[in-house]
Design goal:
Number of strands: 10
CATH class of the largest domain: Alpha Beta
CATH architecture of the largest domain: 2-Layer Sandwich
Strand content: 25-35%
Shape: globular
Number of helices: 3
Distance between the termini: 29 Å
CATH topology of the largest domain: Ribosomal Protein S8, Chain: A, domain 1
Length: 131
């Protein structure tokens, strides 16, 4: 079944799996989703991920991270949607929960966190907030 917003689908699967304490979940692969889970792993929100290409289509196997039986992901918010894109310059990148969370941007230099984008002085499409 085709999904109109694949990034929101990934974030919803992550939110739902973390909410019920499910250790692993699968999501269909795309380059954008691969970059998003790479950032989430590097920032410590998920334990690990793996790309499985053995089936008819590639699938990402994502492993949730739990700290004292509580999911590392406390919340997620999709900001830029297919019907309403949200673009920010490097000076307008918002802080998430006073620096406790991350903003994920799609820039001309690739997908990166808000801190990296500020450091490189690039703006872009504000994809999501994670805390």
């Amino acid at each position: 079944m085709p999904v109109s917003d694949p990034i929101a689908d990934l974030l919803t699967r992550l939110r739902n799996a973390a909410g019920v304490g499910k250790p692993k979940f699968d999501v269909p692969y795309s380059k954008m989703k691969g970059e998003l889970v790479r950032i989430l792993k590097r920032e410590g929100y998920i334990a690990d991920y793996e790309l499985d290409t053995t089936g008819g289509y590639p699938v990402l196997h994502v492993e949730n991270k739990f700290v004292n039986k509580t999911a590392a992901v406390a919340g997620l918010k999709r900001v830029s949607k297919p019907g309403l894109r949200k673009y920010v310059s490097s000076t307008e990148i918002p802080r998430v929960l006073g620096g406790m969370g991350i903003a994920i941007l799609s820039t001309s230099s690739g997908v990166m966190t808000g801190q990296e984008a500020k450091r490189k002085n690039v703006g872009g499409e504000l994809l999501a907030f994670v805390w």
